[in-house]
Amino acid sequence: MQANTTSEANYDLLTLSGEVDLHYSPQLRESILGSLKAGKPLLVDMGQINYIDSSGIASLVEGFQAAKSAKLGYGLLNVSGPAMQVLTLTRLDKIFAIYTSADQFAATLPA
Amino acid sequence: MLGRSTESGPPMSFLEPLIEPLSAADTPLASDPSAPQLLRHLRSRIYDFANSLDIEDTLNATLATLMRDLRTEAAAVFLFNQQQSELVCHGCAGPLDLRGIHVPLGEGIIGQSLAQRRIQIVRDIRQTPAFYMPMNLDTKGYSPRSLLCAPLLVQDQALGAIELFNKLPSPGNPEGFFDDLDAQLLDILAAAAALAIRNATMAHDLVRSETLRRELQLARGIQERFLPPFNPADPIVGLNQAAKNVSGDFYDYQRLSDGRYAFNLGDVSGKGMDAAILMARAHSLYHCLAKTQHSPAAILRTLNEELCEHAMGGLFVTMIGGLYDPQSGTIVLANAGHLPALCRARDGTFTRYGASALPLGILSGLDIEEQRFTLAQGSLYLYTDGLSEGLARVRQPDGTVSNMANDDRDSGMDSLEQLIDRLAPLPREQRLRQLAQEASQLDYSFDDLTVLLVEKPQA
After folding, report:
1. Domain range list for chain B
2. Which of A67, B230, B305, B386 is surrounded by the fewest CB atoms within 10 Å?
3. Which residue of A has its CA nearest to B407?
4. Which chain B residues have a beta carbon less than 8 Å from that of A58?
């Protein structure tokens, strides 16, 4: 897994690629919570993920819970086919805000 | 003096005395030792340092010996924390207590000593700005005047550093300053001490690792006792293989007083001890609730509220709860975020029963639907992703195993259905073992593997 966080105008963009499994999920968790603890809304770009296991999903869920608690924007961007299958099977696609462009996410944030 | 003594006389003349018995541990080093005296003494010290495999004993023996041999007022030993890149004081002798003090690598005299991998000698501390003394340290009136530091190294591995404070004043050295001879002697003794400390540390790690292994084995044993005992008369059988010592997967079934069977199968996100503890909680709650509540959806809703009461760091449970009536053949299923249950009818057609709700432990107030159908002579399979994904893994030409077959998770379930079809003629216990074995063939150790089968026993 590769994880890269960049600062956009009013949110952080976390771009993931490769396989997100038990080995990498602590790193994913750290990246997600790092932005949220700094008070930054977070958009997770999942367009380049070709595999994600339940531990990786748990990191995304923890981010969802932390963002909800801190009242920060939190969304997933361009969710790849394999990742979307997992979210759909588990019905988690019903709770995550899923976007097809970063502008859509930015438009939901307070000015 | 050391330099002169080691250069004088034929080598054999002072090798002979080395075979004499070791000196007592508390024998002080002569103030101006001859080469044979010094070598015997060092040999003795090497044995003293390595006398125990207990890390605390080793550190204390090191400090006591160095204070005696170098005639110092106080001494401290710091161990290196590589993750934090800092030295932490683990032992002290004399009037100064530095235990628990943290010194960043490269800072202060001791931090520089380790960073630069060399002895540091400070004749007069008061004229040395690099001396590091935490502001909140209670020195109880003790004031260091002179300082000698040596890194603790084994080959190039940094273990820590030793710090000696103030030589005992003597007529020839009333200020108690350290000199170059002290530095040379400490250099040699520190090398021996480092070896002893590394041995003790390795022994400590080995014991801890073995203790942890035994505890994991005990935990696995307890998990195995959660599983229902096999009874050939029951219409349900299950199989659970842990990828590690403990499992985040679980299944359970019990015969209720009215003859129906309550069953469930679940998977906690992640693996390891945190998943195992959550698994134990979910398993116990469901088992208890199922005795009096016969609606699988209602049990899952209650379980979800219980799990949501305590934040679990993103951990969640995917789970299927079910009820089977052997008299009517009716099955009621409730699926919270779990992989679809597969029902194979006698004619070989499959029906998938997917999730109607989120996994448990994420959001309270779940709306979970129940699905009802008649099993008749068919077979119902509940399984975790260790089974379906194991079948979808592909071994690459270089020998590595990729997680999924070309981005298609459905291929795992398709493969599972084909395999179930092929194994259908086998007796159910043998069929489950064969299912697990074929899914494991590539490398099931990626994940826990659990499967539960509801099917009338063959007469």
Report:
1. 50-205, 222-454
2. B230
3. A82
4. 269-270, 313-316
